[in-house]
Amino acid sequence: MRQKKTYGAIDNFRLAAALLIVAIHTGPLDSFSPAADFLVTYCFGRIAVPFFLMVTGFFVLAPYQRTVSRSMAGRESACGKVWKFLRKTALLYAAATVLYFPIKIYSGQLSHSFGGWMKEIFLDGTFYHLWYLPAVLLGCLLLVGLLEICRPPMISVITLILYLVGLLGDSYYGLISQNHVLKTVYEGIFSISSYTRNGIFFAPVFLWLGVIIANGKIRLPRQTACLGFLLSLAGLLGEGLLSYSLKWQKHNSMYLLLLPAMFFLFLWLLSLEGEALALARDCSMIIYIIHPLCIILVRGTAGVMKMTDIFVNQSFVHYLSVCIASVALSILIAWGMQWVKGKYGKG
């Protein structure tokens, strides 16, 4: 079943991005070549989260930015859209936290201090993959505040500076930590957030990039956008390999060339015509939420069936198995959500 969408390629890429996130947590090529797995998973795969942030900027924050200096009626409508998104995301985050709470207890990962809980809830995420949810919440709040007090050029400067600060604490930390002063500064940052890929340093620039593309009505010919993406991607892979080989990386979520790569990728997707797969939006988010459960399910089932060597140790088979389980469950859940909404939504 397919349905027509104005932004069909954007909707469909949500699914691809969700599966890239699954790859980040399963390492599909690790059994064959750790180097290839790093390039594909931890360099190319890093386009997934920025893409989702840009989608939020494009569809949620851009209408608000357009109405900042206009009539109150239009502004109230756009503001309502932003707060509806924030409320929905916060509720999703709360539900996911509850879902994974027993696993945190079982695995011994439960924080035993108030400060530790605050750090997880607002910056690190309450489970290893959930950091995106507080990041998008905090990033949106930060941008809304900036829109109230700054003009767009200044917002561009601020979000870029924040990203560069985060970049130096991520893929380039090994380089700057050789300086005692900078190392002390970043040790302070890491005392309140385990990584710089959070809602302060990472999310704002990609949210703002989505706003710029939407409100600036920036478009490029399909071939130009595709070429720009491929060239930026090649540079991104080179940057990732260089920072990895020189042992600079504390983490590998933030690269300098990720910015132009995402700019051209988004414009390329906007230039494509086509239909969106039904349930693409719902399934992509569900896959993101449930795939760690599917990892546990695949590992547990493989152990019971004594097929761990095939379904766990063979990294690509493991990745495919988790993807199949995640997609199948996400479709069932999305269908169930639509049925409940259709049956009780108007009640």
3D structure, described in words:
The chain starts with a strand and ends with a helix. With 347 residues, it is mainly α. The chain has a two-stranded antiparallel ribbon. Helix 3 crosses helix 10 and helix 10 packs parallel to helix 12. The protein contains 15 helices and two strands.
Briefly say what this structure is.
This protein has 347 residues and is an all-alpha fold.
Largest sheet strand order = 1-2
Helix content: over 70%
* String of helices and strands: EHHHHHHHHHHHHEHHH
Mean pLDDT over the full residue set: 94
Secondary structure tally, helices: 15
How many DSSP-defined strands? Answer: 2
Radius of gyration, whole Å:
20 Å
List the helices and strands and how they pair.
Elements: E1 2-3, H1 8-24, H2 34-41, H3 48-66, H4 72-107, H5 114-124, H6 132-149, H7 152-168, H8 173-176, H9 180-192, H10 203-215, H11 222-245, H12 258-271, E2 276-277, H13 280-304, H14 308-311, H15 315-344
Helix pairs in contact: 1-3, 1-13, 3-4, 3-6, 3-10, 4-6, 6-10, 7-10, 10-12, 11-12, 13-15
